Amino acid sequence: MDVPLWVWGITVAAIIGMLVFDFFGHVRTPHAPTLKESGTWSAVYIAIALLFGLVVLVFWGGTYAGEYFAGWVTEKSLSVDNLFVFVLIMASFAVPRELQQKVLLFGIAFALVLRTIFIFLGAAAIENFSWVFYIFGGFLIWTAIAQARSGGHDDDEEFKENSVLRLTRKVLPTTEEYHSDRLVTKIKGKRFITPLMIALIAIGSADILFAVDSIPAIFGLTQETYLVFTANAFALLGLRQLFFLIDGLLDKLVYLAYGLSVILGFIGIKLLIHALHENTLPFINGGEHVTLVPEIPTWLSLLVILVTLLVTTWASLRKNKKDAQRRAERGAGDPAADSAGRHIGAPGDPDADTAEAPADPREVPVSRPESRTD
Q1: What global pTM score does this model have?
Q2: Rounded Cα–Cα distance for residues 303 and 301 (Å)
Q3: What stretches of 289-355 show up as alpha helix (H) in DSSP?
Q4: For residue range 238-268, what is the model confidence (pLDDT) as tens digits?
Q5: CA-CA distances (angstroms) from residue 101 to 4, 97, 104?
Q6: Do residues 137 and 266 touch, judged by C-beta distance below 8 A?
Q7: What is the sign, positive or negative, of the torsion defined by CA atoms of 57, 63, 68, 74?
């Protein structure tokens, strides 16, 4: 795939332009986006990604367009799984709803820079060492098994600060309260970083871990650096809007982890087959290529990914519907039960458990003292 330097320049400029537009058009003035706003702009970014795929189809052909779409769908799916962690981070740091957009956008921009570095490093490694495909494939299969065993995200799961955050808190003085949408503030002549900055660092450092499996996964679908970069960029660009659009629906995707484990495992196997076809390791078939098993074509990869996601979504929604029916049946038999079917006691019943169910941390209002800035 021959991509002129000027095409790279236009692509990068367009992506930076969309980030700048996002900041000045939506994030600069703190507010909690409505469902309509989130839905509209999510659709816009998805449309842009699809239109770009058509551009690839027209100028470079169906094979490369198929690789782009397979990579974009995979990265988008993995990014939805990442939103679970983003929700935990927002709740852990009690980020006010109207400030969450800024954290997400800055975190996405930081993630895009890091992923670009990883992409070029990965491309260089593949160009010079074909045995890297063995490492990528084995790692993805291991990740798929670990994902399937974990079964996804627990409702009671809590965010645990990593070493980057602990080091940041230790080195940099941090305020206890939020200071509007400021990342850095000054108190009595001394500069402090705010909890908003800590949350931003948490989002960015978490995405480093996300890139560890997403970058090898997309290299399993295409080795074209331009397609890897654009698929990642367009998957990340609409992530902020997607967060607010499906925030309340994430817990309903109960089988998403299993679907992603199938996709990662499939791509891992695809990488291992490709590694055998490109084999140069002397202890495998005497350094000769192994072509006994045919390589998996791009159209089949895209089909497997789409079918897996559709089945996963359908099964998740079906399970949620059945669970809701069971809760409704239990609630109908117990007038003192809450919406989840739990007995919380009735007025005048001293023997009943009167403890209310814990509130969703995303809905707890956060009071922010006035900043004592100089």
Answers
A1: 0.73
A2: 5
A3: 298-333
A4: 888 888 777 666 667 778 888 888 988 888 8
A5: 35, 8, 5
A6: no
A7: positive
